[in-house]
Amino acid sequence: MKIKKGDKVVITRGKDKGKKTSVEKVFPGEAKVLLTGANLFKKHLKPRGEGKPGGIIDVGRPLSVSSLALICPKCNQPTRIGYLLSKNNKEKTRICRKCKNQI
Ligand SMILES: [Zn+2]
Prior knowledge:
This protein is an all-beta fold and 103 residues long. The protein is built from no helices and ten strands.
């Protein structure tokens, strides 16, 4: 997964297109991420007794990583991610393709 928790992203498809937000949780198996305050759907809650009256709440649904572009924290632009291999080829470092900084 190229996207990590805490990354700043911009949504490139769907109803929240153009919205900038950050990644709250990643689901590597599904290539999906949960974003802060984006891709929200109304959920109806049933009353569950005292103090829990029920109602309608907004619930964020995971969004496919193909609908996102990472915003580089260094140059502040939507970018693609490249990888740099360490000398022993064991570690990969993410780099911004635009400014070449590590991210
Ligand atoms: Zn950059």
